Fold this protein.
Amino acid sequence: MLNELWQNVTLENYNNFIPMTGKITQVPVRYNKFFKGDVELWFKTFALRAQNMINSYLNYPFSKLKFETFKDPLLKKICINMVFITIEHWTFNRIPIEFFTSANMSVGDINYSSQNDPMATWQGLLPSYAKSLANLTTLKKCFVLFKKKVLI
């Protein structure tokens, strides 16, 4: 689990990202009772949650290597943009960006299976945001191929 914000993932940079719903200057009303008006703490909490979702989606590369060690600025930009987009959709649109997931579990003789609908992932995304999500999916494929080559 990631415990530190990536370089350039800050409230100031989020506000300069020009989110379509406006800048964050206070804790959104529905979260205020938990954060008591501390907008920095609120932002950090949601940014860390977004980073962990992204890291999980990419098959955990940032749990092995620090974000700062990656030399490619495009990789960093894609991940940072996705943090900001995820925060925006959680907070303002109430449409979380759920990365494609599926899970199977057996308890005794009962099998459980769950898979989210990919269409729900794209719902409400601007074309530029959809492009960022597509870039993240491309990154995932690169990490999977890299992992396979390293293990062979």
Observations:
- The first helix runs from residue 11 to 16.
